[in-house]
Design a protein that fits this description.
By secondary structure, this protein is of the alpha+beta class. The chain has seven helices and ten strands.
Length: 283
């Protein structure tokens, strides 16, 4: 009899972790939204309460008090590079997105507490506060929604909308600087025989017309790792752009030779374009 009881206890303990992982439906379902801004990843993880016929502003959500900006847990917002919010600097990282709704103006807060209970909010952990004026929505929005309705390589609009109110935040990024930082990290972490990462870094900087000295270093690293049609043809075009046609021709001819010797041949179109450039440089 005792053996049976022990076995049952063991089975119950074994089942406990599985039960703990079982999710139940939430009245305010969880959601997330991700937006790429240039090379910057922005993400918001939040919950979506619904109006359900209630009075929201000044009632369910009181004015002039810190609000978790959603439901359930802390609303988490993260950026993997430095950004600006309404023109003010915010370092890369994860933050709790809190707000203080007002009748005419809201305070939007980025706080060090990005997880856990909103009840644990502490003002001394605020990293940034910005003031934003809300605008009216033409139609009622039943579910609380955070979105990025627009984005470019240099910025995006982050919108908070619920019931008949909308709040918009301007997010800015220095994509050139962000790319250079990521390029340096990627090249430093690349394997010894990896010529592609440094080539991608070089090509990106040359296309941006940014940090030419770093671009040249990345290109030379790629070439010193392995001479290929891709990196040598890029060098040829760079030299031609600098007015060194003799050097450009030499690099281009090496590129063609590397392409012929490679197992994976460059496209006929790329070869033809480089041969056309060589002819132009010779003339």
């Amino acid at each position: 009899m005792s053996k049976i009881r022990i076995s049952a206890a063991v089975l119950a303990l074994a089942a406990a972790p599985a039960l703990a992982q079982l999710a139940t439906p939430l009245p305010s379902p969880n959601a997330s939204v991700t937006q790429t801004i240039g090379v910057t990843k922005a993400e918001v993880v939040y919950s979506r309460p619904s109006v359900k016929g209630r009075t929201i502003w000044g009632d369910l959500v009181p004015y002039d008090k810190v609000w978790r900006t959603g439901a359930n847990a802390v609303t988490k917002i993260s950026f993997d590079t430095d950004v600006t919010v309404e023109g003010q600097k915010l370092a890369a990282g994860a933050y709790g997105l809190f707000t203080i709704p007002g009748k005419a103006e809201w305070t939007v807060i980025f706080n060090k507490q990005s997880t856990g209970s909103p009840a644990d909010y502490a003002a001394d952990k605020d990293v940034l506060r910005v003031k934003v004026k809300p605008t009216a929505l033409a139609e009622n929005k039943e579910f609380f929604t955070i979105s990025f309705p627009s984005a470019t390589n240099s910025g995006a609009t982050l919108t908070i909308a619920w019931e008949k109110l909308k709040l918009s935040l301007a997010i800015g990024v220095d994509t050139n600087a962000a790319f250079l930082h990521k390029a340096k990290v990627a090249v430093a972490d690349a394997k010894v025989d990896d010529w592609r990462t440094s080539l991608t870094a070089a090509r990106g900087l040359y296309d941006m017309k940014y940090a030419p000295e770093d671009a040249a270093k990345f290109l030379e690293r790629s070439i010193s790792t392995k001479e290929t049609f891709s990196n040598l043809s890029l060098k040829a075009n760079v030299l031609a752009g600098q007015g060194d046609k003799k050097g450009a021709i030499a690099a281009a001819e090496k590129a063609l030779a590397a392409g012929k010797a490679a197992e994976q041949k460059p496209s006929p179109e790329a070869v033809a374009e480089l041969e056309k450039s060589i002819a132009a440089w010779k003339n």
